[in-house]
Amino acid sequence: MKEHRKYLRLPFTSTVRIVSSNNIPLFATAININRGGIGLYASSVIHEGTSVKMDITFKDIRGKEMTEMVKGKIIFNYKWHWIYVIGIAFDQLLNHEETPYLFEYIENCETMIHL
Question: What is 10-113's CATH topology?
Answer without folding.
Answer: Thrombin, subunit H (2.40.10)
